[in-house]
UniProtKB/TrEMBL annotation:
CDD domains: AdoMet_MTases. It comes from the Bacteria. It comes from Myceligenerans pegani. Pfam families: Methyltransf_25. This is Methyltransferase domain-containing protein. One of its GO terms (molecular function) is methyltransferase activity. Transmembrane segments: none annotated. GO terms for biological process: methylation. Residues 52-147 form the Methyltransferase domain. InterPro entries: Methyltransf_25, SAM-dependent_MTases_sf. Gene3D superfamilies: Vaccinia Virus protein VP39.
Amino acid sequence: MDDGWSGTAVPGAADGSGGAAWASRVDRHDLMFAEITEELVVAARLGDGDLVLDVGCGAGATALAAARRVGSGSVVGADISAPLLAVAAERARDAGAANVRFENADVQVHRLPAAGFDVVLSRFGMTFPEDPGRAWANVARTLRPGGRLAFSCFHDLASSEYLVLLRSAVATVLGDRDVPELDGPDESGPAFLAEPDGIRGFLAAAGFADVEVVDSAATFWMGHEPDDAAEFVLGMVPARALLETLTPGERSAVRTALTALLSSRASADGVRLGAGTWTVTARHAEHDHGSDFVATTSRLRSAAAGRWTT
Ligand SMILES: C[S@@+](CC[C@H](N)C(=O)[O-])C[C@H]1O[C@@H](n2cnc3c(N)ncnc32)[C@H](O)[C@@H]1O
């Protein structure tokens, strides 16, 4: 992934040359996902004093939204992307948010504080393609017994409405020729996340109960105007991979066709498309833990604001 979503390949991040373009794309993604963020913090039932972990926090929008709701509590955002974490820390400073901090941590293997959090949140960050089982067990371990999990994930990337419209625009231009398959990184994560039964099964195995998988009614805000929205869509990673298979003339025709399709979705609020996401909530099952867990929990809760690993 190379548009600011993953840890290693933010264009120009190393020397700062791509910083402005990349940072504006981060802001744009946060506008796109604003309804999801709101839905997530509501689903997590955050309250004063909660200790919250945002898994795969990226540039920190969800962590900051949570921090506004937990008052005397605190939020830790964890990610493996140093450039995104730097943006997150700067945003926290700008917002004067003293109850949030960001950590460079691979959530699959990092020694997260056992039972150190009341809530784990994640906006599209629970994918862990390498080893989901180990990662989710690690996340479960850092939630106190009875603690809450709330995350968003995609139905599957190919059915995202912006990609459906893009493929439709490409089909218009190619006529009889087949539309190339979407190729490149699939940010939607492992297949089990795309299906409610798969999500439920995986969460049960990781020690969660009361699992609810809700088909989100949230929309993605794609831009102010159809033209602006088309430019944004065409700059997204899966779109770029698809466009690379076309000639410059075909690419230009795709843009025109896509703008026309997006025009039908424009309103006073801008261009909005269906998100195609699940909002998942669950409770960390209490029976999985021994009696010494309560003592561990209270020790770690008092330390959690200042200490990251056990
Ligand atoms: C799809 S992005 C979502 C970012 C953010 N939650 C948002 O909605 O803007 C997934 C994020 O997970 C992070 N990530 C991937 N693998 C990770 C890991 N093993 N541990 C922690 N973060 C990880 C990536 O760096 C990326 O920022």
